[in-house]
Specification:
Layout: E1 10-12, H1 25-33, E2 38-45, E3 51-53, H2 74-77, H3 98-107, E4 111-116, H4 123-147, E5 157-160, H5 163-172, E6 178-182, H6 189-195, E7 200-204, H7 210-218, E8 222-226, H8 231-240, E9 244-247
Parallel strand pairs: 1-9, 2-4, 4-5, 5-6, 6-7, 7-8, 8-9
Antiparallel strand pairs: 2-3
Helix pairs in contact: 1-3, 4-5
The structure holds SN-glycerol-3-phosphate (G3P) and magnesium ion.
């Protein structure tokens, strides 16, 4: 039997978060408008347990506030300006809840990779809350689609560097697929991922080689590489047979074509366009 794997080859990092403020609905809308149908976002929880999108532990890089985001209640977090740092055009773009991001992505028939990015110390609570929300939201969307005779959205895939978060996610939402993130796959990495019931590993592209891609695939794991912004690296990874690439370069790579469908594993590029905004990559 084939594993459940409805995801596109191309995934926009932080929701197309280089050309627009990362982890916001504005970024997801931009990616959707450019034809992207797979998105990665970072999720953590507020002081009152609401899953929302933010990469960093603290607020200063991507909002006008300072300090740990997880110390604030969701009612306050959702009023912050998470867009003005990127460009004045995005001033007062709010921090979205995870539920809002799911609704937007699904309304366009796209899929979401939710990276569980806990505030240190919140690994288990974040894994549990993110997974519970994602599963409940997905099951409700499935029911709704079924009653109106439409196909339902793909299951969100949960990923994390934190084994504890993946364990908590597994217990809270066994129906959702999971992926282990690795800066570099340790010797016991494939076994760890399989023991956690993961179907994939998401690995920093510079630490991958053909042998590792093959070893993971032979172990029954899908392989995604992050964050791949250069043509040469993308070509090399596609030739090794990775199942997907996470990228910031949403105006460079053509997301509609999957090199895995092409015997020569060719990539396609979009025609050159001027940058929408100054490139501000995050940490
Ligand atoms: O999920 C892949 C990638 O997003 C991991 O790194 O720091 O951009 O969340 P980071
Ligand atoms: Mg991430």
């Amino acid at each position: 039997m084939h594993p459940y794997w409805p995801y596109p080859f191309w995934i926009a990092h932080r929701g197309a978060g280089r050309q627009a403020p990362e982890n916001t609905l504005a970024a997801l809308r931009l990616g959707l408008a450019l034809g992207w149908r797979g998105f990665e976002v970072d999720a953590k929880i507020s002081a009152d347990g609401v899953p929302f999108l933010l990469h960093d532990t603290t607020l200063e890089r991507t909002t006008t506030e300072r300090g740990r985001a997880s110390d604030r209640m969701w009612a306050e977090l959702q009023t912050l300006d998470a867009g003005g740092w990127h460009h004045s055009e995005h001033a007062f773009e709010p921090i979205p809840s995870l539920a809002q991001a799911l609704d937007l992505v699904w309304a366009h028939g796209a899929s979401l990779n939710i990276e569980i990015k806990p505030t240190p110390g919140d690994e288990t609570a974040t894994g549990r809350a993110v997974a519970e929300l994602a599963q409940a939201h997905w099951l409700a969307a499935q029911d709704q689609a079924q009653s109106s005779g439409r196909p339902g959205p793909s299951a969100p895939i949960l990923s994390s560097f934190q084994t504890q978060s993946l364990q908590a996610a597994r217990e809270a939402a066994p129906a959702l697929p999971r992926a282990h993130l690795f800066h570099q796959v340790p010797a016991h990495g494939p076994e760890l991922a399989l023991d956690l019931g993961c179907c994939a590993c998401v690995v920093h592209h510079e630490s991958l080689d053909a042998a590792m891609v093959q070893a993971l695939a032979q172990g029954g794991l899908k392989v995604w590489a992050y964050t791949v912004n250069e043509l040469e690296a993308a070509q090399r990874l596609a030739a090794w047979g990775v199942d997907g690439l996470i990228t910031d370069a949403v105006q460079f790579f053509d997301p509609r074509l999957n090199p895995r469908d092409d015997p020569q594993r060719r990539l396609h590029l979009l025609p050159p366009q001027g940058p929408a905004h100054p490139e501000k990559a995050g940490s």
